[in-house]
Amino acid sequence: MAEDTSRRSKLIETLWLFWAFNHRGIQNSILGPTILDLQLLLKEDLRALSYLFFANGLGSMLGALAAGFLAPRFNLRIQLCLSLMVGSASLVAVPHVHYIVYMYTMVFILGTTSGLVITFAMLICGKMWEKTGPAFQFVACGMSTGAIITPLISKPFLCLNKTLAKDSYLTNVLPFNSSRMESVLKSVSPLQLRSQNTMCTADDTNVQWAFFVLGCCTLTAGLSQLYYWFVRRDEKQPETKPPEYVELDHYGQLTPACVFFYISLCVMYFSLSSLSATFASLLTIYGVTGPLHIAKGTMATITALFFIGSLSSRFISVFLTRVFTNYQVLITHLSGLVVVGIVFVGLGNRYPLVVWLCSFSSGYLSGPVFPGVLAWVTEVLTVHSKITSLCFLCSGAGIMLSPFVGGLLCHAFGAISFLYLVLSMVIGMGLMFSSLTVILKIQALDHTGLS
User: Fold this and answer.
1) Can you give the pTM of this predicted structure?
2) How many CA atoms lie within 13 A of 180 on its CB side?
3) Does domain 241-451 correspond to CATH entry 1.10.10.10?
4) Which of these CATH numbers, 3.40.50.150, 1.10.10.10, 1.20.1250.20, 3.40.50.720, describes 7-161+171-193+203-232?
5) Dist CA 302 CA 239 (whole Å)
6) Rg for the chain (alpha carbons), in Å?
7) Helix or strand or coil: residue 151?
8) Cα separation of 64 and 119, whole Å?
9) What b-and-e string marks burial along 126-164, b requiring 16 or more CB atoms within 10 Å of the CB?
10) DSSP state letters, 88-104
C-alpha cells in the first residue's frame, strides 16, 4: 500500500512538471498572436518590436546555460519554484511597461526563466524515476500543450479589427536595410506581422488580460513546486546507476572522448530544434513559391500537421518506452526520419500528397527524439545537470538561427533548397546519434576511461 501511495505521489508530481513545462510553450508562442496589440500599447513600429523575438530567444539560451551551474548548488525544487514565479511576474508585466527598453527586459527575463524551468524540470523528473523515458516524453508534451493553449487564451482579448497594411509598412518589420534580404524576411515573418491594425487603439485591446491569465497558469506550477519542496525538503535522492552506466568524464577529466561526445550532442540538438523551426518558418514558403504552388491556407494546415504529429508521437512514446528501451525507440524514429527526408527530396517537388505525408511523418518521427536522447544519455552519464543545460542551450541556438539561414538559402537558391535543408538536418541527426552510440560503446568496454 505504501508503495502504491509513493507511486501515486510521483505520478501527481510528474503531472505538475508537465504543467511547469507549459511555461516553455507559452514563452515560445505568446509574442506571435499579441505583437500587434503590444504595438498599440507602446506606439512603436514593428521594426522595434521585432527585436522582442531576439531578446526572448537569447534569454532562453542564457537561462539554460545558467541552469547548468545553478542546479548542483541549490535545491532543484526551490529553484524551479522561483523560476516559475519570476517568469509569471515578468509575463504579467510585459504589456504594462510603457517603454520599449523595459519590454525588452521583461521578455528577456521571461526567456531566461524558460531556460531555467525546462532544465530544472527535467532534472527533477530524472531523479524521480529510474526509467526516465516515459516520464521525459510525458513532461515534454507540456511544451506543445503550452504552445497550443497560448493563442487560444489570447484571442478573446485581442482587438480583431484589422485591415491589410501597405507593402511599404513591412519594411518597418525588418531589422535589415538590405533589399536582397527584404523579400526573404517578408516571407519568413509571421502572418500577424503582415496586417496593420488601422482601426484599433490602445483602449480597444485587452491583451493585458491574456498575459495575466497565462501568468496565473505559470504561477500555479510554481506554487506546486513550493509545496513539494516543503514536504520533501529533508529527502535525499539515492543515486541509482543502471548496469550500462559508464563514466564518460572519468575522475572528472575532460578526455577526448568526452569532448567529441559533447560536440556530437550539441550538433544533434541544434539540428533537431532547427528541424521544427525550419518547418514552422519555411514550409509555407516552399509550398506557395515552389514548383507545386500550393495555396497558403493549405500550407498553414500542413504546417499544423507537423506539430500535431510531434505532439501525438510524444504521447504514444510514453507507452512505447515502457515496453522498449530509449535506444530502440530512438534508432527506429531516426532511421524513419532519414527515409522520409530522402523521399521528401525525391518526390516532394512533384506531388502535393508527398508534402502532406512527409510533413506529418517528419513531425511524428522527430517528436520523441528530443526527450528520448536526453533520457538515453542521462541514463549512462553522471553529469546530468550539465548534459541537460547543454541540450537546451543548443536547442535555443537552433531555433534562433535556422529560420534566418534557411531564408538566405531560399533567397539564393530558390524554395527547393528547403527540401535539401531538411534532408541535411535529418542526416546530421543520424550521424551524430551514431557518434554518440559508438563513443558510449567504446567507453563501456574500457573501464579505465579514455585518455
Assistant:
1) 0.70
2) 6
3) no
4) 1.20.1250.20
5) 45
6) 22
7) helix
8) 6
9) bebbeebbbbbbbbbbbbbbbbbbbbebbeebbbeeeee
10) HHHHHHGGG-SSHHHHH
Nearest to 276 by CA among 238, 305, 312, 245: 305
Measure the CA–CA gap between 61 and 71, rounded to whole angstroms: 16
Closest CA to 186 of 402, 411, 36: 411
pLDDT tens-place values along the chain, 451 residues long:
555 557 788 888 889 998 998 888 888 778 767 777 888 888 877 677 777 877 887 888 888 888 888 888 888 889 999 999 999 999 999 998 888 899 899 989 998 998 899 888 888 887 887 777 778 778 888 887 887 788 778 878 877 665 334 433 333 333 333 333 344 444 444 444 444 445 677 777 888 898 999 999 899 999 988 888 888 776 655 444 444 444 445 434 567 777 788 888 888 888 888 888 788 767 877 888 888 888 866 776 787 788 788 888 888 888 888 888 888 889 999 999 999 999 999 998 889 999 999 999 998 998 888 888 877 877 666 555 667 777 778 887 887 777 778 877 877 888 888 899 999 999 999 999 998 888 877 766 554 443 3
Distance from the Cα of residue 217 to its chain's centroid: 19
- Indicate the domain borders of the chain: 7-161+171-193+203-232, 241-451
The reply to whether 241-451 shares the fold of 7-161+171-193+203-232 is yes
- DSSP label of 161: -
d(CA 409, CA 437): 32
